[in-house]
TrEMBL record:
Principal EC category: oxidoreductase
Gene Ontology cellular component terms for the protein in this record: plastoglobule
Compartments in which it is found: Plastid, Chloroplast, Plastoglobule
Name assigned to this protein: Flavin-containing monooxygenase
Family, similarity comment: Belongs to the methyltransferase superfamily.
UniProt GO BP: methylation
An MF annotation (GO) of this entry: N,N-dimethylaniline monooxygenase activity
Keyword hit for Cell division: no
Cofactors named for this entry: FAD
EC number: 1.-.-.-
Organism: Punica granatum (Pomegranate)
One Pfam family matching this protein: Methyltransf_11
Gene encoding the protein: LOC116197687
Length: 767
């Protein structure tokens, strides 16, 4: 059997993959789209930028930095890194394997159908690197001859990285879109690619606004300030300020050192940890927290963060865990003090003719040039490599990470392919090297992979681990060299004020799990109202916190607030629904899951969840990034919590309990991927208002699935149909046609339904 290996990309990860596969006897071919290896280090970093890693943290294990350009505690320039990479490639004879100016335009897997791959329970059929019958066809555009060639390989390693390619352009409303701006808008990578003379000419004597919170943004702002001074100050808009390190040491030691050693790993809980590790993590966790608070105090003392409103909402520990820490350029806050840099913090922005308008402000920032340093779409860039729409979906399936990978290397459902270079650390080179060593052993047949289900379970466990310590920004890519934002508004809280719909400010641990919600407080800055957890659910009703006012709902709603009814709901009450055609919870859940396929990996809200009969199933399925069990009944939510307590796995799941009104959902518009309403529609005081509200919170492509009792079933005699139409009732029973009509009138599409006697399950989608 042939064992041809193709590597796509000749950056650091591509060179490492090439070196270690050669050591195992392979003859890899590396395709690089640019004219040189390590192009990102030459053309896509600000000319004046220094790394925020010392050279010793960016060093190959078997190739030291040449003296005196790097190594040790020195912070090398990006040009030094570029020369170091080239020297590495020459030393280990990698250059003959690399074909430059060869852009891979697409890869296609042939030899096995998608159905055959779906049926298997082992990766590639056997769990080995070369065990399947398929192979990859790699289409390559050779720029020198302007021709397309198709190369075949039994294994492909994607090393394309995530810091160049598709810029993450913020999505803005039409009335504030980029097109409205009369000036010029550039992506940071375009600016970075300019030489010193070209960059200086572009920014000279111009009013410049930089949007971003990462290292690229502050480096560009500093460079603009050096060129124009206070006469033409550079404005930098930060949506999510991060903890930043000054260019000095704490008692001679870099303060980031506190989290860079093995001790830091011993103080964190990890999936599959031993009993000893669990004990050590529990014992050392307070110390880890204490170090974080100590560093925060030091940084606030050392830097004027409070003066300029740049104290981050998240902890230093969270920024370290998500890889968002970076070093400031030299004399950065001196430039701010002199007025050559103007710092602005905002929860959102838009464009008008004369410049940039910040959320909550009336006057725009007058601007000639806007530079967007808002990161790159690493997951979309990776997905675009595949010709198969199924593989594209696999890559972008998870909403919580760039790509869900087993051991950060293998996708459980894409055979004969590995991914190296998706960054998650403040120092990526050592991680890439470890992964390439592991991959080389796998290619050499030294071990087999576990089953697909076991790998997916492992991926989910590690995603939860990273979210636990990295917070809501844990999906952000980070790099020791280029720290940029993956999401233009990553600090936006999922919960919004039910009064004004502004995102709430959270004070407490991030996440959707019960513990995080219980220990957090929420505040609306606009309404000056606070919300908190009560009895392990978060109360986000309009009347939350009021003692003298108790809103009474219609009888159909109030019935389920009675403690006895809440207690009996899963203990006999719900089982009686079978008489009307309801298929039973297990089958009903499976039916809903089929309709929710387009929303997999996103956030699901189970409105009118009752005692959490389906919320718990959605959470345990691990199909969604988070599940919110939402109900107006306090007693139903208490019952839900009691059921959750009996299942230890649910206590750690991304499952939150929220009290809210379905007619006033506490979520921002377009922020929810899926909404489920089980046996609930007929209980709402106004189904049309509720469905309109569900439509508002659904994102484009989001799915709403509901079940209800129909006013009558197809076998009901006509005379009884008329009676049921006029007789008074505590519930609002609709016909199938009425349900469809109200969904369509609210702007939902792709209506589908299943009817059994008086039971209906319907599904609609937001266009």
């Amino acid at each position: 059997m042939e064992r041809r290996v193709i590597i796509i990309g000749a950056g650091i990860s591509g060179l490492l993959a090439c070196k270690y596969t050669i050591q195992k006897g392979f003859n890899p071919v590396v395709f690089e789209a640019k004219s040189t290896i390590g192009d990102v280090w030459l053309k896509h970093i600000i000319q004046s930028s220094e790394l925020h890693n010392p050279g010793k943290d960016l060093q190959f294990s078997d190739f030291d930095w040449p003296s005196p350009t790097g190594g040790g505690d020195r912070f090398p320039a990006h040009t030094d890194v570029f020369e170091y990479i080239k020297a590495y490639a020459r030393k280990f004879g990698l250059l003959p394997h690399i074909q430059l100016n060869c852009q891979v335009t697409g890869i296609r897997y042939v030899g096995e159908t998608e159905q055959e791959m779906e049926m298997g329970d082992r990766w590639g059929g056997t769990g080995t690197a070369f065990g399947s019958a398929g192979k990859w066809h790699v289409s390559v555009h050779k720029k020198e001859t302007d021709s397309i060639e198709v190369h075949q390989a039994e294994f492909v390693i994607l090393c394309i990285g995530c810091f160049i390619g598709l810029p993450n352009i913020p999505k803005l409303p039409p009335d504030q879109s980029i097109e409205r701006f009369c000036g010029k808008v550039l992506d940071s990578r375009v600016y970075s690619a300019l030489d010193d003379l070209g960059a200086a000419e572009l920014i000279k004597r111009k009013r410049i606004t930089v949007i971003g919170s990462g290292k690229s943004a502050v480096d560009i702002a500093a460079e603009c300030a050096d060129t124009n001074g206070a006469e033409y100050p550079c404005t930098i808009i930060q949506l999510t300020p991060h903890w930043v390190l000054p260019c000095v040491s704490l008692r001679g030691a870099h303060i980031g050192y506190l989290y860079s050693k093995r001790f830091a790993e011993l103080s964190t809980h990890q999936p599959g940890e031993s009993s000893l590790h669990r004990l050590l993590a529990t014992v050392f966790s307070p110390l880890r927290w204490g170090i974080s608070k100590f560093v925060e105090c030091y940084l606030q003392w050392k830097l004027p963060l409070r003066k300029y409103g740049m104290i981050p909402n998240q902890s230093f520990l969270q920024d370290v865990s998500s890889g968002s820490i970076f070093r400031l350029p030299k004399n950065f806050y001196d430039k701010v003090k002199k007025g050559s840099i103007i710092l602005k913090r905002s929860r959102g922005f838009g464009f008008v003719e004369e410049g940039v308008i910040l959320k909550g402000e009336d006057r725009p920032i007058r601007t000639d040039l806007v530079i967007l340093a808002t990161g790159y779409k690493g997951d979309q860039k990776l997905a675009n490599m595949f010709e198969s729409p199924i593989f594209r979906k696999y890559v972008t399936h998870s909403s919580t990470s760039i790509i869900p990978l087993y051991r950060q290397t293998i996708h459980p459902r894409i055979p004969r392919l590995a991914v190296i270079g998706q960054a998650e650390s403040m120092s990526n080179l050592p991680l890439f090297e470890i992964r390439c060593q592991w991959l080389a052993q796998f290619l050499d047949g030294k071990f087999e992979l576990p089953s697909i289900k076991e790998m997916e379970k492992d991926v989910k466990a590690w995603e939860g681990h990273v979210e636990r310590y990295g917070g809501r920004k844990f999906w952000m890519s980070c790099s020791g060299e280029i720290a940029t934002e993956k999401n233009p508004t990553p600090d936006t809280e999922i919960f919004s004020c039910p009064i004004c719909y502004n995102p709430l400010m959270r004070k407490g641990p991030p996440g959707l799990n019960l513990r995080a919600i219980h220990w957090s407080g929420f505040e609306c800055e606009k309404c000056n109202k606070t919300y908190s957890s009560k009895d392990n659910y978060l109360d986000l009703t309009l009347v939350a916190g009021l003692k003298e006012y108790n809103e009474i709902k219609p009888a159909g709603t109030e019935l389920f607030r009675i403690p006895l009814v809440s207690f009996l709901y899963e203990r006999g009450w719900r089982q009686n629904f079978k008489r009307s055609g309801f298929p039973g919870p297990d089958e009903e859940f499976e039916m809903a899951q089929r309709y929710f396929k387009p929303a997999e990996g996103g956030l699901l809200v189970d409105v009118s969840c009752g005692s959490g009969l389906f919320s718990r199933r959605f959470a345990k399925s691990e199909t969604y990034s988070g599940v919110i069990a939402l109900d107006f009944s306090e007693n139903m939510l208490r019952q839900c919590y009691d059921f959750i307590k009996s299942d230890s796995s649910l206590m750690e799941a991304n499952l939150a309990l929220v009290r809210a009104d379905v007619a006033r959902l506490p979520f921002a518009s377009g922020s929810v991927d899926a909404v489920h309403a089980g046996a609930a529609l007929h209980c709402w005081s106004s189904p049309s208002n509720a469905i309109a509200e569900i439509t508002r919170v659904l994102r484009s492509g989001g799915v709403f699935v509901g079940t209800s009792f129909l006013r009558y079933n197809p076998a009901t005699p006509r005379i009884l149909r008329l009676l049921r139409h006029v007789l008074p009732t505590n519930y609002i029973f609709l016909t199938a046609e009425e349900i469809k009509d109200v969904c369509m009138l609210c702007g939902l599409t792709n209506y589908a339904s299943e009817i059994r006697q008086s039971f209906i399950m319907f599904s609609v989608q937001k266009p």
